[in-house]
Structure formats: C-alpha cells, structure tokens
C-alpha cells in the first residue's frame, strides 16, 4: 500500500501571506490618507474661521473710526456756530464782553476732540492677505487698503490742525504781554492764525462727514466681497 505523506504548508509558499500583507499595507495607507484628509479639512476650517474673525475685526475697526468721525463732526457743527458768531463781530466789540462769556465761546469754537487711529487691525491685516487672495477676495483687499489709507490721512491732518491752534493758544498764554488785548480771548482773536482757523471750521466738519460716509460705503463693499452681513459687523462692533 502506497501511503503519501501529508502536505505541509510552508511560509512564503502560495498567495495567503502576500495577500494578508497587502491588505495590511492597504489598510494602513487608507487610514493614513483619511487622517491626512481629516487634518487638512480641520485645518482649512480653522483657517476659514480665523480669516473670518480677522475680516470682522478689520471691518469693525473701520466702522468704529467712521463713528468717531461722525461724533467729531457733531462737535464741530457746534463749534462752527460759535466760530460764525465770533467772526460776525469786531474784536473791539467782543472786548467789551465779560471775559468769562467771551472765553467760553472762543473755547467752544477752537476746542475739539482728537481723532486717535487704532492701528491694531491694520497690523493684523497683512497676515491674511494671501488667504484672502486664494479665495478670490482681491476687491476686499483693495478696499480695506484704501480705508486704512484714508484713516491714516485723516488722523494725521486732523491732529496737525489741532496741534497748530493749540500752539497758538500756548504761545499767547506763555507770552501774554507780547500780544495786544485786555485778556486771553481778545489776544487770540486779534491773531490771523486764529481767524483763519475759525473761518475753516465749517469746512472741517463737512469734510469729516464726507470721509465718514465714504468709509461706510467702502466698508459695505468689504462686507459684500467677504460674504459677511452688515448686521454681523454692527453687532460685533457694538459688542466691543
């Protein structure tokens, strides 16, 4: 009787081992790809949220500055009333007024709040330019850049103007005897620099209104370009 020995499986023989190994490699590869894909999606979501918050901060900063200009325009409108009244009188007639009354009117005409420009949002802005470009928001970048440029110019021009009249005030106060007049207010009103300032008050408050409105219009364009509603920006600004 011919008895055949049993077959013994040898590692490496046949397709079972390689099939198992291939499945392990494939599973590992798929798992790695899924991990990378999920990480990329989470990163993109985080970048989008970060970009949206930065855009909100930028537009809120512009809105706040426009509101500040409006508030100063209101103050300048009242200053213009005082300036017009002073210019309608001769200095000799004004000198006959009680000093405290004349001083109060003059101070109202030449005293205006400063216009500080918070540059924190502008400093944040360049960090996200590439991201905004990648999503096609070139218009948003251009508009925001124009807004920041306007805001810097307004702060610089306005504060130089305030500094100029303050320097006249300081000079008269420190060298009172060098100027003609019975009191500080009259001495100030006899100076051409003071009269020129008073003559331009009406132009200044109208200019502030114009710039504030221009910033608001551009900011609405920013909102449309970035896809954020005006209500969201206003609520965010109010909350700050």
Radius of gyration: 35 Å
Distance linking N and C termini: 99 Å
Order of helices and strands: HHHHHHHHHH
Proportion of β residues? under 5%
**Mean pLDDT level:** 82
Helix-residue proportion: over 70%
pLDDT < 50 stretches:
none
User: What is the count of DSSP helices, taking H or I runs of 4+ residues?
Assistant: 10
Number of strands: 0
Task: Tell me the structural class.
Answer: mainly alpha
Shape: rod-shaped
Main sheet specs? none
Please outline the helices and strands.
Elements: H1 16-87, H2 91-95, H3 99-110, H4 120-124, H5 129-134, H6 138-174, H7 184-189, H8 192-199, H9 201-226, H10 230-239
Helix pairs in contact: 1-3, 1-6, 1-9, 1-10, 6-9
What does this structure look like?
With 240 residues, the chain is an all-alpha fold. It has 10 helices and no strands. The model has no long low-confidence stretch (mean pLDDT 82).
Keywords:
240 residues, mainly alpha, 78% helix, rod-shaped
What does this entry show, briefly?
It is built from ten helices and no strands.
